[in-house]
Amino acid sequence: MRTKHTRARLGAFVTMALLAALVVIPSASGLTPSTFESTDGNTAVDGAAPAHDWDGLSPAVLRADKADTPSGQNDESFVQGTKEDTAIPTVETGSIPPNKSDLTRFRIATEKVGTADFMYLAWNRTNTLGSANMDFEFNQSSTLTSNNKTPVRTSGDMLVTFDFASGGNNVQLGLARWSTTGPCEANGAKAPCWGPIVDLDANANADGGVSADQKFGEAALNLTAAGVFPASQCVNFGSAYLKSRSSDSFSSALKDVVPPETVNLTNCGSVRIVKTDDAANPLAGAGFTLYKDNAPVGGSRGAEDTATTLTCSTDATGVCTIVNVFFGSYWVVETTVPAGVDAAADAAISVVTTTPVTVNLVDPRQRGAIRVVKTAKHFDKATSPNLAATFTVKQNGTTVGTITTDGTTGLGCMGNLLLSSYTVEETTGPAGYLKDPDVKTVNVDTKGTCAAGYKSVSFENKPLSNITVSFQSQVTGGTAASIDCTGLSPDGGDATPNAFDDTSETYKNLTEGTYTCTVVVDP
Fold this sequence. Notes:
Elements: H1 5-11, H2 16-24, E1 61-67, E2 76-78, E3 91-93, E4 103-113, E5 116-125, E6 132-139, E7 158-164, E8 172-179, E9 193-194, E10 198-199, E11 206-210, E12 216-222, E13 236-245, E14 254-266, E15 269-277, E16 287-292, E17 306-313, E18 319-325, E19 328-336, E20 347-351, E21 357-363, E22 367-376, E23 390-395, E24 398-404, E25 411-418, E26 420-428, E27 433-434, E28 439-444, E29 455-463, E30 465-470, E31 480-485, E32 504-510, E33 517-522
Parallel strand pairs: 15-21, 22-29
Antiparallel strand pairs: 1-4, 2-3, 4-5, 5-12, 6-7, 6-13, 7-8, 8-9, 8-10, 11-12, 13-14, 15-18, 16-17, 16-19, 19-20, 22-25, 23-24, 23-26, 26-28, 27-29, 30-32, 31-33
């Protein structure tokens, strides 16, 4: 059970002079080692650097700034005797109950100071009627209850109580956790319930202050020292809201509420990986594992660096996120590589805040090679085979380059080709040979270079021949002839193929085969 209500009631008997001093001349000192001014009851930065406050929050990070629905028929409040232990509070809209705080706004910020996690809270209200008894609730689940307002509570959810007596500013701060088994803070309550409240003031794990007009209050909590963020466990709260109680009794009815707001309250970070190829296309199915970068830190990943259980796989957009990452140094290692690309190099990262670390990793597209093997039929092995030729390489009908074969070996290669289907055709060949007429398809589907792993395609050149048919009359002017080779045209053409005026016809660049030539002699 909470025991600090006695201290709160005794504070009411402090002399008015002392109360006035407390209100008019607030102290700016904060909860060390934080330099946040959490006890001065204002938003201004009053001290010298590195002091900071709500008007100059850095290096702290604002996690939530939630304004209440304006007072009136749409303003939310708790009704029907809803209490802190009510699992599904009853919420309705309308005016705030008389003589109770009309809450208008709450703010939450966090800061890492050394190895400690600090949280800063602030609230605003429009009136000062009655005592101030307010609770900040932090939930881990984002699933809403049937009231469609407040999240479902789960074991370990957190409640920060903020109390001070009417007419004074002796702030009392407490911490409770949602328990599914008990014990409970409220007398006679049964689990699930809020567990016993820990006095944060007594343990020097929190402090706070209020403004002179008591319409603003703030507090600082050392979440690490309070055990909210243990060193060996990631804790995540994703939602927070502010509510008021009707009295300093924990079992009193709840009244006004500033509805829940999304927050990112955690002692761990996250790593967001963006994976593309070297043409900026997103890559799905790339798997990653975080390796702890143990001493010596940096350089390159070594045997001393150990794999964690923190993994993710990219979706269709090429993105995946690893959550619950303790602060420290890591290697992002690609362990599953999509087809057709090479793995990116290990990336060294440092996770030092709750702000996600974004890592852009590029997998270069794999490339292959095409080697042409050129041969010539019946070449003279005693002399140069004359195997030099040029081949055109096309992808989808577009020329991407040419390959020239060596005149002696008949070999030529083109590398750095993206994995794809290509066509290869001979465009120029050696003199005396017929170019290979075939257009050949080559599927470059594996990684390779001109030294190894290339795809081969063969072409053969066949030697060409000339046929010359000659006629000569032994008597000048004695006889004449016509020469015709079936299916062939003579070199230079024959303007009078039916006339007897031929003495010699040459038919060039003939491939292997049988040819029939007819010579008609007219005496």
